[in-house]
Amino acid sequence: MSRETLAAALLPSPVPVRFLAEDGTRVDEHGAYTEPPSERLVEAYRLMVLGRRFDIQATALTKQGRLAVYPSSAGQEACQVASALALTEADWLFPTYRDSVALVARGLEPGEILTLLRGDAHCGYDPAETRVAPQCTPLATQTLHAAGLAHAMQRRGEEAVAFALIGDGATSEGDFHEALNFAAVFKAPVVFFVQNNGFAISVPFEKQSAAPALAYKGVGYGVRSEQVDGNDAVAVLSVLDDAVAHARAGRGPVLVEAHTYRIDAHTNADDATRYRDPAEVEKWRAADPVRRLETYLTTENLLSGEDIERFRAEAETFAAGVRDTLNADVEPDPLSLFEHVYAVPTRQLAAQRALVAAELEAVEG
Amino acid sequence: MTEISMAQALNAALRDAVKDDDRVLIFGEDVGPLGGVFRVTDGITADFGEERCFDTPLAESGIVGFAVGMAMGGFRPVVEMQFDAFAYPAFEQITSHVAKLRNRTRGALSLPMVIRIPYAGGIGGVEHHCDSSEAYYTHTPGLRVVTPGTPQDAYDLLRDSIDSPDPVIFLEPKCRYWSKETVSFTRDGAAMDRAVVRREGKDVTLIAYGPMVATAMETAEAAKAEGWDVEVVDLRSLSPFDDETVTASVRRTGRAVVVHEAAGFGGYGAEVVARVTEQCFHQLHAPVLRVTGLDIPYPPPKLERHQLPDVDRILDTVARLQWNDEPAVAGA
Ligand SMILES: Cc1ncc(C[n+]2csc(CCOP(=O)(O)OP(=O)(O)O)c2C)c(N)n1
C-alpha cells in the first residue's frame, strides 16, 4: 500500500458513525459498518438496563457511606456494555476507575468490583482468572500494559485481543501516545477505546485538545482510527466488533473514539454546577443511550413490553443483591497488609508484621 | 580462566539467561544491533535473534509499561534504561505499577522483570548522565534494588535478578563497567538479598555499594599505613537491607562509616546509619558517620572530582571516629 492510500485507510469517518438518531429512528450514517444481529442488540439493552441500575445503586451507597467514592458512568452505558460484549473470555480488558459498568457487563461480581471503591482492597477480583486488569487510577498508564500484553499474547500464538479503556483527558498524557506508537510498531492486537465524555473533572474538551476529534490522533502513529456516536449502542457495538476483529486478525491496533457525555459529576464528591450549565446536561439527557436503543428495538418489534419489564425486574433484584453485599461489614485482616508485597518475603517485613501482630494482640487481649 | 570486565560479565549473564529460559526477553533503546551504549547487550541480537533482544521506540515510560504488560502475559522482560536520569519518564510506571501490581492484585499477578539502569558518575559524563537515583527506588516497597560492585557480583546478581519472581531495579555502576576480574559462571544463588564482607578488619567498618566498593577497598589499603585495620562491607542488595551481615560487622569493629555517591541529605546512607545505630548502639565507640556526594545537582565533568567521595575524604572521616574511645564530635 502506498503511503497515501495507507493514510486514507487509517482515517476515521468524517462524522461519527451512527445507526440511530436521538429519537431512536434508523439513520444511514454508518458507511460500510453493518448492524449487529438482533440478539446482540437485545443483550446489549438488557445489560444497559442492568448497568444503569447498578450505577444508581452505587451512587446511593456513597450517600450511605458504604462506598468511599464512586465515579458514575451514567450516560455512557452504550460504551460500557459494548466494551464487554465485543470481547471473548480469552481477551483482556483494561478498565479505568470509571468503567465499573463494563465489568458488570463482563460478568464480574458487584461485590468484587466495588471493593476498590469501598476501600477494602485495591482489586477485588482475580485479574488472571477474569482477564480484567485492576481498574486503573493513574491516567493512561494502562494503555501501555494493554499494548505489552497484546504483544505477549501475539508471541504466544493466542488469538486474543487487549482492550484498553481511556478517557478524553487522559489522552493528553504521554503514556497514551507511547502506547499508540508501541502498539503500531509491534502490530499488537490492541483496541484503544476513548470515551470522550466531554470533561476531565472540570476541564471541557475544548481546553483539553485542539484536535478536530481524538480519533485523528491514531493516524499519525499508523493506527487505524474511527469515531462513533457513543450514545448509539448499535453503532458502538458495530464499530467495536469491527475493531476487535481487525486486531484479532493480526492487522494491527485500532483507536476508537466515542462521543458521549458524563451526565453526573466526576464523582459523587464533585460539584459539576461550578463548571457547566445544567441546560447542557439536559440537552444530553435527551440523547440518552438506553432510551434510544429501547425505542429502536421496540419499534422494530425486537423487544416487547414484557421483555422490558423482565429486564427491569432483573435489574431490581441485582441492585438488591448489591445493597446486601455492601451492607455486610467485612473487616479486612490487618496482617494481610504484609502479604503479596514481595513473592519472596523480606526480613524487614517479617519484623514489621510481628510488631503489628503484637499491637493487635495487646488491643484484643 | 581469563579476566573479564563488569560489562562482559553482565553480557554473559544476559546470554545465559536468554539461553536457559525462553521467557527472558531483552529490550530497550539501542540494545539490538548496536549492543547498548555501554555494549552490555553486545552481540545478543546477532546470536539469539530479534525475537529475544530488540530495539523499541524511544520512550522510557513506554518501555517499562510495555514490559509490565509482557510480564503479565508470561514473559520475563529485562529492559535497559539508557542512563539513570532518563529513567525518570518511567518513574510513574515503576512506582505506581511495577512495584505494586502483586500487592494490588493480592498475588494474582506478578511482575518478574528487571530494569537495568547504568547509574552514578565518575565517567566525565555531561549532565543527566550521572545521577545516583537509588533512594527513589529503595523508598518504594515492592521493588528489590541491587547494585554490583565487582564483575563476579554483576554476573551472579543479574542472573539472580532475572530469576527473581519480584521486580528488580538493577543499578549498574557505570564507572566500574571496565573493571576486570576472573569470573566463575557457576552460581551459588547467595548474592541476592545478602551483603558480603569484602575485606576483614577489626577497627572500623566501611559500608559501601556499587561504585564505591572499589573506593572503599582502596581506602582500606591506604588506612593500613595509618595503623587502622578496616573492614569493608559491600551491601549489594540495597533493598531489602541485610541487617545481619552489617550488624555483625559493626558489632565486631564498634565503628562504622557509610559511603555513597548520592547526595547525603535524605539519602540512602541515612537509612543505613539509623539501622546500625538502632541495632549496635551499645557496641558503638563513636557515632556512625557518612561520606556522601554533595547536596547539589550532579556537577559538570571538570568539577566531578569534588562530588565523588575519594580515599582522602573517607580517611578523614575515619579519623573523626577517634581511636581513644572518646565520643566523636560531629562536624569537627
Ligand atoms: C496521572 C494522573 N494525573 C491526575 C490524576 C487525577 N485525575 C483523576 S481523574 C482525572 C480526569 C480524567 O479525565 P478523563 O480522562 O476525561 O476521564 P473521565 O474521568 O472523564 O472518565 C484526573 C485529572 C490521575 N488520576 N492520574
UniProtKB/TrEMBL annotation, chain A:
> NADP: is it a keyword of this entry?
no
A molecular-function term among this protein's GO annotations? pyruvate dehydrogenase (acetyl-transferring) activity
Q: Which Pfam families is this protein grouped with?
A: E1_dh
Q: What is its EC number?
A: 1.2.4.1
Q: Name one GO biological process term.
A: branched-chain amino acid catabolic process
Recorded hits in InterPro entries, A to Z, give: Alpha-ketoacid_DH_E1_comp, DH_E1, PdhA/BkdA, THDP-binding
Task: Give start and end of each Dehydrogenase E1 component domain.
Answer: 45-316
Q: NCBIfam families this protein is in? A: PDH_E1_alph_x
Q: What is this protein called?
A: Pyruvate dehydrogenase E1 component alpha subunit
This chain's source organism reads Amycolatopsis umgeniensis
From TrEMBL, chain B:
Any Pfam family? Transket_pyr
As cofactor, the record names:
thiamine diphosphate
Q: What is its EC number?
A: 1.2.4.1
Q: Which InterPro entries match?
A: THDP-binding, Transketo_C/PFOR_II, Transketolase-like_Pyr-bd, Transketolase_C
Superkingdom, according to UniProt?
Answer: Bacteria
What residues does the Transketolase-like pyrimidine-binding domain cover? 4-179
A molecular function annotated in GO for this UniProt entry is:
magnesium ion binding
Keywords assigned by UniProt, alphabetized: Oxidoreductase, Pyruvate, Thiamine pyrophosphate
- Name this polypeptide is given: Pyruvate dehydrogenase E1 component beta subunit
| Native organism | Amycolatopsis umgeniensis
